[in-house]
Structures are given as C-alpha cells and as structure tokens.
Batch of 4 targets.
Target 1
Amino acid sequence: MIKKAALSFDKDLFKRSVVYNVKTLYRKSMEEATPQQIFQAVSYAIKDAIVDKWMTTQEEYEKQDPKMVYYLSMEFLMGRALGNNIINLQAHEPVKEALEELGVDINAIEDQEPDAALGNGGLGRLAACFLDSLATLGYPAYGCGIRYRYGMFKQQIRDGYQIEVPDNWLENGNPFELRRPEYAKEVKFGGYVNVYVDENGRSNFKQEGYQSVNAIPYDLPIVGYGNGIVNTLRIWDAQPVECFRLESFDKGDYQKAVEQENLAKNIVEVLYPNDNHYAGKELRLKQQYFFISASVQAAVAKYMRKHEDIRRFHEKVTFQLNDTHPTVAIAELMRILMDEYYLTWDEAWAVTTKTCAYTNHTIMSEALEKWPIELFSRLLPRVYQIVEEINRRFVKQIEQIYPGNHEKIRKMAIIYDGQVKMAHLAIASGYSVNGVARLHTEILKKQELRDFYEMMPNKFSNKTNGITQRRFLLHGNPLLADWITFHIGSDWITDLTRLTKLKVYADDEKAQQEFMNIKYKNKIRLAEYILEHNGIEVDPRSIFDVQVKRLHEYKRQLLNILHIMHLYNQLKEHPEMPFYPRTFIFGAKAAAGYRNAKLTIKLINAVGEAINNDASICGKIKVVFIEDYKVSNAEIIFAASDVSEQISTASKEASGTGNMKFMLNGAITLGTMDGANVEIVEEVGEENAVIFGLSSDEVIRYENFGGYDPMEIFNNNSDVRKVLMQLINGTYSKNDPDLFRPLYNSLLNTLSTSKADTYFILKDFESYAEAQKKVEAAYRDEKGWARSAILNVACSGKFSSDRTIEEYVKDIWHLDKVVLPLKK
Ligand SMILES: *Cc1c(COP(=O)(O)O)cnc(C)c1O
C-alpha cells in the first residue's frame, strides 16, 4: 500500500534540489561533498518541502482566527530535526530511495546533525513531545523559548570522570531555522519606576534609567504527521539595542553601552545544566524575563492585529507555564495590559487569571524557585510592584477565608520572608494547576500544595505525561514499527491506543520469535554503537538492563551500581552459581556542580573497569556507561532495552517519561511505585512488570518522623555491609581509598547530625536485589518474557503525548482543531 502523502512528495524534485543545493552552497558535486555538506543540502531541500505547508497553516490560522496555546518553556529538548521532519512529512521511503540513488545512506546523513539540546531532561523533552502532538492533532500552538548559543553540555568521560564540553550546536548553522528580525521586541531591565499623572488624573507608570536588549525571534517549523499542519517553535536570541557610536559618547553613555552590549551577549549564552534544582542565579532570572517579555509582547501584538478589545485576549490566547520558570509571564501580562493598554487592575486581572495555567513538575524543595526580593525588584522594578500588589490582594483573600490564621499566610503568601515564591504566584494567578502523573497530583493535593488545594480545589487537575510515538517508535525503532504495522496496520502512528490489537500476538509463538528477533537486531545496533563510542564489547544475547536519565540522587543510580557490586561479589564467591549474562547500561549527565552525582559516575566507571576486565567471571557481567546521553542516542538505546530501570525513591519522581519510552519499545519495567510507573503497572498488569521497594506513603511517613536508621541495615545485612566497605577500602579506587567516602557518608553518616540515606537506598536494597532475581528468572523463560514484552508494547497506548494533549485541550485550553482546506 502506498501512502497518499508519499505520492505527493516529489522524489525527483527532491533529488534535483539536493544536487542543486550542494552545488550552490558549496560549489561541489555530490561526489566531492562531505557528509556534513550533504546533510545541509538535504535539510534545505526538506525545508523547501515544509515551507509551503508552513505558510498555508499560518495563513489558515490568520483566516480562521482560532484560539491558540502558547507553550512557554525555558527548555525544548528537541533532538535532531531532519529525520523527524522526513517522517512527519510521510516522506521517509522516497527520501531514502532518492538518497540511495545519489549514493548516500540516509542514516549517515541524519548522523551529521547535532542534537538541538535546549533542555536538561524530562521537562524539556516533554515540551518537545507536546509540540509534535499539537501539530499532529491539528491544534494551533506556539512553543516559546530561548535560542541558547550553547545547549546542554556535551559529556566526555576521561579516566572515569565526567568532563563538560561546550555544546556549540550552531557551529554549522541551523538549516531549519528562520530569523525574523522584523518581529523583534525590546526587553527592559533595571532602572526605576516613575509615576506621571496625566490630564485625566490617571497614574502612568514608566520604567526609566533601564538597560535593554533586543529580542530577535528565530522560528523553527513543527511538522504535524501527515496532515499538512506546520506549527512554530519560536526561540529568542538577544542583540544589543544600539551599536557603538564612539565619538558621540560621554563617559556615562559609554559605560552604559558596554553594559548593554554585555547584557545581550550573556543573556542567551548558555542553558543552565541543572535538572530539578534551583540555583538562584541572577542571570537565570534575566533569561526568564527576557524570553517571557518578548513572547508576551509578541502574543499581545499578534492578537491586536486582528482584534479591538484587549479585554477579550483570553478568548484567543492561553499561556501554559512549563514549571515555574516562565511564571513572570503573569506579572508581565498585567504590566502590558495596565501600562500599555490602560486597563484597570481589575480588568487586567480578569484577563490574566483566565490566560495563565501552570504545570507543576516536582515536589522536591530544592527545586522550588524563590527569588530574593532585593534581586527581583532591582532587576524588574515595575514587575515587582505588580507582584507586590498581587500578593497584597491574595493575602487579604486568605485573611478573609481564614481570619486570624497567620500560619496560612506564612505558608501561602507569594512574598514572604524576603522572597518571591514563584509557585505561589503561579497558583494564585492562574486558572489551572496540574501535576504530571496521578500519584504526583495526589501528593500535591494532600501534601505539598494542600493549603492551595483546599482554598481552590477546582483549579487542580492531573495530566499524566506522555511521549510521541513518532520519534520514539516510528523513527527510533523502524524494525518494530514495521512489524507492528504489518500486524495491525499503521493507525497507531496517530492513535496509539490501537496497539491493544497486538495483545492477540502475545501468546503467538511465531510472533514472539519475530518480536525477540527484532529486539536482538536492535541490541546488535546498540552493541555496535557501544563498541564504536566506548570501545567495549557487549554480547547482544545478554540481558540489556538499562538506566538512562539525568544523574540525581533521588533517581538512585547508586542503588543500581551498589547492587552490581553485590552481584559481582557473589559471582566471585560462587563462580559456578547460575547466572544469566547481563549487560548493565548507564547513561546520565550530572549537573556540573553536583558532587555526589559526579562521584556516582566515577563509581559506575570504576566498577565497570574492574568487572569488564576480570576474566574470572567470563564476561557474565558487563557495565557500560554511555557517554553523552541525549535524544539521538536515546532512540537507539530504548529500542535495544530488555529491562527498564525506574528505581527512584517513591514519591520523588513526578512522572518520568523515560519509563514510557522503554515500555513502548517492549522493555519490562523494574521499578518502584513512583510517578507514572504506577499507571504503567496499572495498564500492563503487575505480572508484566517487576515492582519493589517502599511505597510513597511509607517514604513520606518515615520522612515525617525524621527519616530512618540505616545503621540497622548496615549491622544486620552482610551483603550491604560488604559493598559499603568496598566504597571506602579502595576496592574500586586503589590509589585513593577515600575517593568514594562522600557516597558512603551520604548513606551512613554516623559522625555528623546530618541525615543519612535520605533516598532510602539501603532500606530498599534487599527488595531491589530480590526483584533483580525475579528479572533473571523471568528472562530465562523465553516465551514468558516475549509475552510480557509484547504486552508492554500493546498496553502502552495511554502514554502517547497525543492523549496528554487531548486532555489539556479538553480540560484546560479549550482549543478547536484547525482543518486545512483541500488543495485544488
Ligand atoms: C525522556 C528523556 C529524559 C527523561 O527521562 P526520565 O527517565 O523520565 O528522567 C531525559 N533525557 C532524554 C534525552 C530523554 O529522551
């Protein structure tokens, strides 16, 4: 069956276009061009195929004037664009053929593209998946973010340590981006606020003595799958407002010009590489206000091009705040409505509180954004006045509901104790607050945000995260995608719930064999990647047991590696014990200043070094740390995984989305009852996952009683004792026995009063080791494993970001689908 859109893709035109681009861009023939040059030429040819659809879509939005969502996010972890664009144009087959005819391998060309890594991890990738789903479902949407000159750092491993290398992703230009200086916006920082009373007796607030930067938008096309829709991701670059005119400067002007130039240079220089951690850096607040002010100004300007009455703004625009990072949008919108459109406070408030909606991504206190008043008011003097007034009115409201209850004010005020609390601002001023998995939302309502929930229960809802199957199955795992389509047709590409039709194949032996054969081929592909990038040989017949995600103590990579140390101890003591060969695969970046996280990377590599080179265990265990975990190699890793390690301390992982990508590719979850794992197990059935560890209720109960005593476990469990002693006796650090002592101390600190093992690693160790035994036993049952793996795929339909987006649309945004007119 040939797809309609595939027919509409002009293969010969594309071929000519590639050859022409190579010639005009580089004055070369195809034979002379480098792979990077061919990548550029191919990308421009694909962009040509996108641009008409992009214009048509935007013209249609202009004509139909639908309500739009602006997804405001500090992070968009997009990965590579070329392969995804080809797939969503439904042009993969003709493009692959055309390139073959030109003597070029499509995969080698895709490999030339640097990842657009404008994000840290799950939060940024969620934004990217949402854009894909919005376009595919035909919803009018803008992504708004920052065009960081340097994205997430590249990770190198030297001597087992992480080295951070700058990610100069724009080095060769970005063929898909469109610079649009005609839509530049000015963003002002600092100075002071003057009040002028005009002839009508109205107070006009004016920011003066400020420094400003020009925000220049760059637009990236977001191609919907097979529907002709192309939405826009708008990322903002910063430019100085004026260039030097040296002669005409007096000293003060000169100083100011230099400062403004530096402000522009610094502001978009680099993505902060912290995941789930607030560092309170001034430049970070500048980044936030920079892209928010530009985006809100642009949204208002766009609205006013077609509408008269700004008081109806919320009927056409909604802002979704991806965590608290964009929360300053609330005050910025108030400012524009009052100071530039002369709305009264009440009018502006009515609009703002119907425009802004907030997504909470974490309950961990170290991640909550709280800006010191001094910093906030100095940088954003007018915005701060508005936040103060929002706070004043909100506190008054609390007092009315809870008269005399100062405790409520202390816990709920937006400004308290010298700090501006961004989550409180977002909740008080938005029309919606959502968590990202059922368990997470319940914890928010019962614990962290309980007071807010009690005061405004109707604002709260759950929107369990999702992922796009177009990237993480159709593009990342073409063998499995083809197998699925062969059996149940291709509808799953835009309706993932169709995968339930695969259930009938779970017990079909031929299907099981085909399925496991595909997994085996994907394991060979990953083994080749590992050999090429790590120089380690791994056996694709071994169990691929994988933990890839940001390195964070709550995610408990330390539990995983301690257990590997334990397994190795057992194998050394009992060389003949039954043991199914296992390849433990890690991938994780640590924030540059996160000591224990970086030390965990070193430990993983040190343990790997020892085990991988110990001939006495006959290669039964291999430990691989994949350098530079990112979206492009993630696609290869998920496709090749047997076991999905989702072992966070229960209650700490808001949702997780890596867990969903593994499931979609037929890996079996080894996890705690945390985040979306709970819903994964609910979908696939307990018998097709391996669950262990404390429940979130148990963890929270311990925490409320000041933790637990890890010494008890140390004293009573000799396996645990042995691996802990190996952390401090030089087993994995001959030349420096104290190297891993900080990790030991984090688990067992008996000296100081600081709490030990706050992530319950030792508490869950035994349960984890038992669960790992179950994994091995399950894998030995080949048919049983294949059955479970197929059922995981078959039951993963809920976890499409298409489902998530439909829920946001129905419950929060209230958008209509745009239908494109039929082409003549
Ligand atoms: C999905 C994804 C994540 C999030 O993984 P979690 O396991 O949910 O933390 C992080 N990084 C990349 C590159 C991803 O693709």
Target 2
Amino acid sequence: MAILKNIPKVDKVLECEGIKSLLAAYPRPLVVNAVRSSLEALRAAALRGELGVEAFAERSVVERITRELETVNAPKLKRLVNGTGVVVHTNLGRSPLAESVGKALNEAAFGYSNLEFDLDKGERGSRYSHVESIICELTGAEAALVVNNNAAAVLLALSSLAPGKEVVVSRGELVEIGGSFRIPDVMRQSGAVLKEVGATNRTHPRDYADAINQETALLLKVHCSNFAVVGFTAEVSAAELVGLGLEHSLPVMADVGSGNLVELTGLLGCHEPTVQEFVRAGVDVITFSGDKLLGGPQAGIIVGKTSLLAPMKKHPLLRAVRIDKLTLAALEGTLRIYRDERRALKEIPTLRMLTASPAVLSRTAKAMLRRLRRGIPATVRLSLTEGFSQVGGGALPLLELPTTLIAVKVNDMPAQDIEATLRGCPVPVIGRIYKGTFLLDPRTILSDDLPPLIAALQALGTCQAQE
Ligand SMILES: *Cc1c(COP(=O)(O)O)cnc(C)c1O
C-alpha cells in the first residue's frame, strides 16, 4: 500500500525537535518504546484505511507519541469517583479512610517508628502489640491479633486451631466471597478437615452434636456475607454453638466477615450483628475484615481467648500474612475514632455514607445538582430521581437504602456511551445504568469528588459536541 511509505523510520523520528524535548523529560527506553508502538499503531490504522496523509505529518506523529508516553507513564492505580451507590465496593477499593487517619499514615510512611521496638524496655518489641489493647477495649475480647486480611485471619486461625482435625460447619454457611475465597478451599489449605452438617436451608444444634467425635477440633460459624437464605430456614445461633462447645470441651470460632462495631439496627432498620455480640455470646475466636463495615484499611482482625490466640501469635504462617506498618497506622487511627461512637458515625466515611438519611441525601443531591449545572455545558442534562443504594462488601445483601439519584442524559447518546466516556476520563467516574438511564448516586460521592466529576461531565459535553 502506497500510504505506508509515509510512515517515518524510528531513527528519523527520534531526531526531530518534538521528540528531543520528550527525551529530556522521560527516560530514553520509554521514549523509544513509545515511538515504536505509536508507529506500529499508525501502520495498523493505515492498513485499515483509516488515515489520510495528514496523519503522517511530523506534528501529528509527535502528538501521537506524546499521548502514548503520557498514557504509559501515568500511574495505573488511580483515584476515581464512585457514583455507584455501593458503599463497600470491593472492585473500587472498599472503604475510603477517615481524614484524621491521614496524619498517622503519613508519619508511619515518611519517618521511622517504633513498629517493632519496645520504647519502655529499649528492646525488640512486637508490631502486633500496638493495636491489641484498643481492639480488646472496643470489642470486649481478651486478646487480639491483626493480619493482612480476613482471608488470612481465617487461614491462620484454622491452621492453628485444627490442623489435621475436623471442623464442623453448617452446609448453609459454606460461603464463597468474590475473588475466589471459599470456606471449603481455605479449610483444605489450612490442613483442617471440613465436616459439613445440616441442610442448605436448615441446620439444628443436634446436627452439630451428631457430628462431634474424637477427631473434632472446632465448631465454626460463618457469616453469610453476600447472600441470604429466605423461607423455611433455621440456623444455630452463636450462643447455642457456644453451649455445645462447652458441653463437648470444643472451641467455637466465628468468621463474621464485615467487622461491624456499631449497633446499626436503629439507623438502617436492619440488623447486622456486631463483633461485640459474638464476644458476649462467648465465641472463642472471631475473625473479621478491617475494610468492610469497619471502614478502615485492608486488614484481618482476630479476637478471642488469650489461650487460643497465643499459638497463633507464634505460628509460622503469621509472618507470611503479617500486617504492614502503613496498614497498622491506618487501622490504629480508625479504631481510635471508635472510642466515641457518634464521632465514628460522622467521621468514618463508610459509616457516614451508610447511615445518611433519605432527607440528607435528597438535600445533598439537590446541592450537587446546582453545583454541577453551573460548571457543565447545557447539552449534558441532569435530573433527580428516587432510587436505592447498596451496602456491598458482603453485608446486608438484601438491604435497599433509599437515596436520590442524579440521572445523566446527553441528547440521544446511549447510556452505554455515557458510561464508557465517564469511565475513560483522567479521573474516571463510575456509575450505573438502570433501564437505559445512566445514574450517579450522591451517597458514595465524596466532597473532593466534585471537581473531577465536573471535569468528566464537561468532557462528556465536549465529546458529544464533536460528534
Ligand atoms: C469478606 C469476607 C471474607 C474475606 O475477607 P477479606 O478481608 O476480603 O480477606 C471472609 N469471610 C467472610 C464471611 C467475609 O464476608
């Protein structure tokens, strides 16, 4: 094809003025790669017959290479605007941290710390000691241990409590969490033997009792995080399981998933058990996540009886699943807020968003609409509509939280195109499509999100204007 003759050679391109300035700003191999891939893209587009001769002008080629370099060099993990209304969105980084956590996080990150140094004794200390007392204070537990995430907490606890022995679990609680965490698989990995009892919808205390034998090491309860069994159901409560455990001298463990520390029933009109409830019921070992309802960083928290946690603190697996110092700083900062529950409900974004009332959300949506309208072209039409948000993160899967949504329309642009354009912005905006309309939920839009949201809606108006 004659048009291919217009494609310049790599060496030639590297010598032109526009590229020289790129070479001054970026490492040479990065620039060379960008030149090569841009020329290849140019060639492919030319072969498809998509390009006119003007695409081969030096200025257009340099522009193409500059864009390519900017894309390659931009951070891949980036901030975005969560307009989905799913508060604990696992794909979007679960819980944003409370602002007051920033200071502790910064200090741990940019300076030295007493991470593993006992300042009283002047000798080696334990990284696990810093948050143990506050976790015990908040939950009422005797002892606590923190690890990388809840999956690690469950693995460590099972490996420590029941290697080669049987663990009794209800068939209705053999949960799979997104991202391939499945109770039976974790059990196998830990070396414990799964002993399923009961039926999918109903399990009775006698099912556990009948399954207990010489090989039994543990009775396990797992929170049905992301699903609900409705209809003709029966489950054995934590308290009943503790009774059985006492009768047979067996420890009881609960993987409670979300790690809720605040009684939310009055605020949500729906009961999500608290960690404290399980402690009070006498459960021996309880594990939960740090970044679900707790609203902290990714972490796994184990609380329970001192005698059962002591071997976990010495287990070889602990090193492999240990918590890092930044997480520890953020976790301690978050837990400190919980000392004052009212403060926690206000300052911890996950709790604040979750418990925002319909009236507050309606006001927020109206105010947001006014702000947005001032900054965007008239082609982008915004309106308000009633709808629902979700908790997400494996808690209260059936709960629909009333909210006021912002519908985004641009002439006859299909909702799919609106979604893709906003997702492709420098600060991407993620929403959802319901019955052919693109929707943003103010519940999960943070106050710092407004400038990038305006920028994204402006881009949407511009791209429509070009079509
Ligand atoms: C979310 C969840 C897990 C996994 O926790 P991570 O912190 O994501 O590792 C385990 N068990 C239950 C019941 C959960 O809800």
Target 3
Amino acid sequence: MAEVHDGATLRAALLPIASDFSFTWIGEARALFDDLNPRRFAELHSNPIALLSELTYDDLESALTPEYLERLERVQRRLARERGYETWWTEQERPEDFLVAYFSAEFGLDESLPVYSGGLGILAGDHLKAASELGVPLVGVGLFYRRGYFRQRLDAADRQVERYPRNDANRLPLELVPMAPVVELADESGELVPVRLGVWRARIGRVSLYLLDTKVSGNPAWARDVTDILYGGDRENRLRQELVLGVGGVRVLRRLGLAPTVFHMNEGHSAFLQLERLRELVEEDGVGTSEALEQLRESTVFTTHTPVPAGNEVFDPELVQRNVEGLVERCGLEWDEFAALGKVAPEDELFGLTPFALRTSRYANGVSELHGAVSREMWHGLWPGSPVDEVPITSITNGVHQRTWLSRELEELLGDTDPQFARAREVPAESLWAAHRTAKDRLLEFIVTTRGAQALDPDVLTIGFARRFATYKRASLLFSRPERLAALLADAERPIQILVAGKAHPADEGGKDVIQQVVDFAREPAAAGRVVFLSDYEMTLARRLVQGVDVWLNTPRRPLEASGTSGMKAALNGVLNCSILDGWWAEAYSPAVGFAIVGDAGADASEAEQDEADAEALFAILEGQVLPAYYERGADGVPERWIALMRESIAELGPRFGTARMVRDYVERLYLPAHDGAPRAASRAA
Ligand SMILES: *Cc1c(COP(=O)(O)O)cnc(C)c1O
C-alpha cells in the first residue's frame, strides 16, 4: 500500500475502494466517504466516485487526521483479506469450467447506481454480492439505463411527482469496456437495423457485472433511446430492451471470451437470450434444431418472481415477429413453432415471456415455498399431462445479503464470523437493546436531516411500512380504521408512531391516491404528529428503516407476495415482523420470532371481505400482542419479552433468510445439475 500523506495520495488510496461495490457491505468503507462531507455525500446519493471528483486536494488533506488514516488502513487490510481468503466454493472439488451467466433487467447494488426499481433488482444485486463472498464463478448481465429509478417528490396537493435524474457513467464506479457488439432491431418501417451497444463493467468483489446500453454514437436517434429509461417507453421499446439484454448480452459474453455453462434468467425479461444461444448451436455448431433446443434447456435455470400479471409480460406476436423472425429462421424454426413456445395453450394469442422461459428451461423455481406451489398451479397448463404437484417448478426461498443490511451496531455486537447470528441469544439484553436504540436514534435523525420530517420520540413503539405502492401490497389496510388507528397513535401510556415510504408506479393513479390519503391523514390532528410519509424510498432509506424501526409491517393480499425481502432485512436486525402469512413469512413465522396477521375470511371470500377480515386481524394483533410485549418493562427499563423475540428473530431468521444460504441452494440444487447438462462446444471459448 502506497503511503498516504497528502490530498493527492489520499485520493489515490480512496479511488480503488470507490471503484468496487464491495464498499457497499463494509460499513467502515462507506463511512470513509461519508465522513469527508456527509451532506454532499447524501446529496450525491452516496456515490463515492462523484464525491471524489468534486473534492479538491485541500479538502482531502484537511480530512487526513491520524485517526482517519488508521481507519483507511483498516479498510485496506480488510479488503485485501477478503480477496485472499478461501471461499466456500474452493473448499471442495469443483468442475473447472463452471461459470454461471446471471441475467436480470435490474440490479440494485447500491443507491448510487439506480438501475433497479424494487425487490427484484435488489435481490439480483444481493445475489452477486453473495456469489462474490462464496467464490461462485458467476458473471452478471444487465442494462445501463441513463435514467434509472425515478426520484419521488410530492407536489403541493400531496400527489407523487417523478423526476428522472441522468446517470452519468463517468461519475459512477463503472468502466467502459472497449467493444461494440451489435443487435438487430426493427425500426418504425419494420426494417432490421444493426444497433451498436456500449458495455460497462461494474466490479463486485470477485464478480463482474456487465451493463449494456444503446446510447452509442452512430446509432439512429430512436435506437439511442432504447435503454434510456428503466422499463420505459411503449411495448415495442420494452421488447427492444429485452432483445438488447438477452441477445446482446450473449454476444457480449462471447466477445469477452466467456463460455458460461449455466444461464440463469432472473425473471422472463432476459428470455430472448435463449434465441441467440439456439442460433449459435444451430448455425455455428451445426447441431440439429431439436437437439439444440434440448441442450439449451438442460443448461438453463429460470426464476419466476411473481404471480402478478405485470411481472409475466406478454407481447403482440406480430411485434415479436418483426424483430426476431430473422433470428428464428437462422435457428431452423418455423415461425409458428417458435410462437408456440411463448404460449400456454395452442389457441392463445399473445407471446408470453414466462411460458417461453419455462419451455426452454429444465430448471425453474419460485421464490418461496408458497410461491412455488402457486406457480405450479398457475403454469399447470404448460404440462397438461402432469398432476399439479408434479409440475417441474421447485422453490428456492429468497434471501438478503446480510452484510449490506445489518446495522453497524449489531455487527459490532455479534461479530462478523460464524455463528454471528446465534450470538444474539447470548449477548446481554441491555447491549442488544442499546444497539437497537442507537440504530433507531440514527434513523430518526436521518429522516429529519434528509427528508425534513418532524422529530419523533425514540421511546414510542415505531412501526415501519415501506414498499412499492402496488395494489396487492394494500398499504391502505392500516388506514382503513381511522378511529381505531387514531386511538393507538394518541394513547397516553402506550402510543405508536408510523413511518411510511414507497413509490407508486408512474402510471398507477390508484397507488398515487393511496399515498395522497396517507399524507392527508398524517396532517390531521387525529394523527397526533405520529404518522410520517417519507418520500423517495430507496436503498439508503430502506437500510436505515429496517435497522431502526421496532416493527416491520406487511399486509399483502395473499398469495400475491411471492416472497418479499424487506421483512428479512428487518428480521436480521431484530426488528420484529408483523405480517400476513404470505411469501417468505408463511414459512418463517413462529410465535417465537414475530407476529402473524391471520384474517378469518374463508377460502372463497371476495377481495373486499378478505381486506375487511385482515384489517380486523391487524388491529387485534397490534392491540392484543405487539403493544403489550413492547411496553412491558423490567426495573431497568428493558423490555425482556420483546428482547426474547428479537434474539430469536436474529438468531433463527438471520442465517435462514440470507443470500449465502440462497446462493448455496441455487448452486447445489440447480446450477451444478445444469452445468452437467451444458453443451460443450469448443468454439464457444474462443
Ligand atoms: C428490499 C427492498 C425492496 C423489496 O421489498 P419487499 O419487501 O419485497 O417489498 C424494495 N425497495 C427497496 C428500496 C428495498 O430495499
């Protein structure tokens, strides 16, 4: 390590730390940037490269205290150690040529790279982080949106307004990869035009993520805008994005000289990668079409993420045909044969990415046990000859990357080596409570400084509710009994306070209505100043919330929450879940780790009846269980019963719902078998 003694040498030492997303899971590394200029760092959405580009050598030099230098050296040593240690993967004998290509339309690695919109992307980011830690050979492929996740603000009438700040690649931890692969896309007249792709590389420890975009000089104007906005534009643009991701992604991997043996499609958006792989096998390797399809299937893993229609995209087949007919021909397929791969039943009109992905993947999974069962039922039509429980869709329950989401205080208390989480059962109650209180104080201060929220009382039971304002998430359930809620908020002895955050899809007026209702309610005297809507929910706010509130509330309409991951982040921080038994919570819940909301609407109740019963159950559990446990205090002011629940939540759920467990499951149950079935075409590695 070069000696650091002035602004220039400090900058040179910080740049490599800022250029690798490993900094996102090492609290001390992030703090090195935060401490240089906390206000500016927050304004720059925690982007260390942007911060370094703004600070002068003098600014840097003035930060260079002996204490700062010591911390810097500690971070440098830690990063060096992490790169060097033996991983789970290398502990055993492994196939030499094993490599997974992991495709996703969004990746949420950090707030500073907003190319994600929610849980799907953050899961993909966490997957890469865990693969790096475990040493699993894996390469990520996604899109670089110039305008990613929108920023949310409320106007004077409390209506959500979206703003799309531009991502400037030069001020992000991305490197331009010098190559310009081409994808053919149909223009307005239906003519195929070669579109050149830009390729950016992000480093996540041992793993690389390649992000593709079309904003390349020489491309026609319409083509340059294809990857402009995350999930943006009309149907045709969406299809073009998916062709860039799938077809372009495979071409990028080949140009890099990579020969993945396993392809993992995280949701159907990348499914066109199968078409390009098929073309390679048929056109370049001379494999017959049906044999090639079989080889392709054997080496593909597909994860379906939601039973909600928006996540299972369908296209007008003519639109698809205009864009891919040429490719389909080169695969030796008739158009009708190809179109049939995207349908459940022969008489279906539309081309669905989920059926296409399922028909071309030998290995498929849902993201919780319950979601696995729901998916087998939902896609049963693809296997009409099989009983529902033999539909070949298994489940691997999601997880979260612990080091990204665990509070600094808990990491200090529990240590960062195994059995990290089990130590929660042994540490003194006062220490656990103190660690939680520090995280809570930090959250309350953070929302005042960054969101202009009113100061809240840290002694009051604080409920967090933060997620996309999609209809099925039912944010309005908690507000459906205003009088009962008002009584809880204003209670003199045992009050509650509520922090709400989340974005509505820009086109979802219903979702925006709910936000408006929450904010209006927060203003009323009945809310007693104890309901706060926090605008612009993103990863930094999420991290503070899941570490600092007392209860994490989730009220989805069962069974539409395929997994849910924010509750896992809360659980490992000892923030107790109070949730409908849907998604991951249906398998995680026991009375020793949190609270279950179980409405008594029958199986054939209408949605309105279900909402009614669930709202009733929600209030009953808050009043009858959550509040008494929280406010019951011993002589020392420590809530023993609550802390017992916190201990079990951390010790039991922390490891079970981590990405390390999840990625090991993918490796052992899906990746290794898929690797064994991979076509071995020597030409691929060239
Ligand atoms: C974890 C996370 C999500 C996903 O949470 P769900 O529980 O699946 O709704 C969405 N947005 C952000 C910013 C997150 O951190």
Target 4
Amino acid sequence: MRADLIERAAARQRERAEAALLRRLRTVRDSAAPWIVLDGRRLLSFASNDYLGLAAHPQVREALCAAAARWGVGAGAAHLLGGHRAPHAELELALAEWTGRERALLFATGYMANLGVLDALLAPGDVCVQDKLNHASLLDGARLCGAELRRYPHADAGAASRQLALRPHAAALLASDAVFSMDGDLAPLADLAALAQQQRATLMIDDAHGLGVRGARGAGSLAQAGLSARDAPILMATLGKALGTLGAFVAGDAALIEALTQFARAHVYSTALPPALAAATLAALRLAQQGDELRAHLRALIAQLRAGATARGLRLLLSTTPIQPLWLGSATTAQAWAAALEALGFYVPAIRPPTVPQGQARLRIALSAAHTSGDVERLLDALATLQQQHATPMNRRARLTHPSPP
Ligand SMILES: *Cc1c(COP(=O)(O)O)cnc(C)c1O
C-alpha cells in the first residue's frame, strides 16, 4: 500500500523527539536588543546575527518608514517585471562600490541567492566542490542544478584541490562560506583562490557572516584577505545579518550579473524585496561603513569572552569572529545547558544534529555590538556555574570519552 506522506513525516518527527533533536518554534513577544521576552521572561540574548546592532538603529528605522511612505510596502512584482525600484538600484550600486565589484544583484534571501547562482551557472556534467560545513543553501543549490557535488573535509584546501583534479575537464565551481555559521572559523580564502586559479575553477565565496564585521569599512572577508574580483569572481552576502535587515546580493563583474539576471530562476521568478527595505538597508550599509567603533567594541567583547572562557575552563571552539560556539558534544547535554541558561536569564540556543554533525552539539554564542562588557561577564559567570554543576564524577568521565572538538 502507498505510504501516507504526512504520517511518514510524523514518524520521522517522533524519531527526532526520541533522540532529543526536536526543533521547537517559540515566539518572542518583545525585543530591545540584546534583550528578548520569551514565555513572559526577559532574557539576555546571545542568539542574534545582528552583529553591529543595526536592526533597530533609529536611522535604519527612519529610512524604512520614510521609504514606506513614498513607495508603499510591497514591490508588487519581480525585478524584471516592474518590481525593480529606485531604492533597489541605489542599493545595488552601493553594495558593488562597498565590496569593490563592478555590479551587484539583489535577491530576496541568502538562501535564494545561493540557489540562484548555482542553478544559473552549473549544469549536469559540471562539478561543484564545497566545504563539508558550507551553509545548507549552497549544498541544496548544488543538488538543484544537477552538477556533481563533492564535499571536502572542513577548511582543507589541499583536499579541495585533489577533488577538482579528479575532474580536470569538467567546468567547476569551488564554493565556500568565508565565516562558517555554526563554527565561527574562517575559510582559507587565499589558498582557495590560488587553487581555483591553478585548476581553472570559478571561486564563489558566501560572506554572510563577514560583511559588515570584517575588513576595512566592514567590506567583508575578501577585503580583509586582500582578494579582488579576479581572485574570487563570485561574492555572495546577506543583508539579514550584520546589516540588520533582510535579503542578499551577489557581486561581481558585469558579465556575471547579466548572466544571473537571465538565468537565476530565484531572481527571475520571485517578487522583489520591498523598496522600503532596500532604503533601510542602504542606511544600514552607510552605518556599517562608518562602523569602526562598533567593530572595535565587538572585537573587545570577543577577546573578553575568550579570555574569560579560558580562565574558567570552558571549551570554546577556535574562532575570532562574533560566533563563539561552546563545545558540548552530546545533543542532550547541549539541550540541558540551554535550558539551564534560560533559567538563569540567558537565551543561548543549542545547535544539534543535523545542523551540525553527530556528536558535535554546541551552544552557539553570538556576540553583538549591542552587548556590553557587563553582559559578557554575566554570561561567563552563568556558564561557569553550569560547568561546576555538570562536572559530577559521571559527567567528568563522560566528557573524557567524548570526541574532542574538531
Ligand atoms: C544565513 C545564511 C544564509 C542564508 O541567508 P538568508 O538571507 O537568511 O536566507 C546563507 N549563507 C550563510 C553562510 C548564512 O549564514
């Protein structure tokens, strides 16, 4: 007999629940960064990708309201069918200038941008080589376009090179996150650029977590690494993280942007972002460009968290970015820590499989310029309390048998 799809999904869901891996949707009833209200309690949140604290900035809000008064809310159509408004065009120009690329093209979300690029450029018979820990949208994009997907061990440029060499005659895209979203560590960008050149592969970098945060004027990870459009012809980044709004863009040469305009179905067949959102993003972009003080404050918080964690024997993964994961290993432990932190007034979500590999559950601590050094100190004290509570003899033994952090 034919399986019922909804029953089958429900069975999978029960398996997830039994493995303590169920995802739960919760509603935030109020927020004033970095604070949120959840289930009637005010919590200090370390969960937001609003790294510069721009999502609620007065100038960004004002730009949104002013543009909504002028343009209304919805764009009403896809970019190619009358939805492309002056604020979109202005934002694309500013993004291209900021990232040092000839042109930029907006997408509704980062997920769509990655699907769009891979779908536009790759075809069956091509090869797409990706870091194992790349964002889900890059991996899904490779599946969508039908190219052969090869995943190399995390941040291993040598392995990437060997995988490209296996298919020397296939057209090839080498794609990597610049900052890995669940680990906070960095891709070996210069090595990837060099090997892409050697192997005649096209390099695509997803800088969702680097734009606004890294590089001079916040221009991102490629700027920080001194890599031009020649080294990394395809730059993708999102607007929903450090810029605090929503959407994404791809930047590169005119030839790339023209091709995406023609062939990226996620661009062609999707409604343009609200023009007011583009105007708000432009205001956020200007603030990010002038955000050296915000970035310096953020760097100081990162240093404070890392030094404090070391002093307290807490195991943070190696990361220099605002993403500072605390390694816990088992999903149950991570869940227990997240719940205990919440009882102490903090929101720090547990990240469990399948978002991260089996046995690598963690708390993902995300810092923002909206935090104070007092906020970080309070979090450190709470983590140290949990560390002591959980260091019962049994736990200590269990911890020794866990695999080490990658
Ligand atoms: C968040 C993220 C995306 C997806 O962007 P959205 O705009 O949220 O859809 C893509 N890539 C990376 C690395 C991300 O962190």
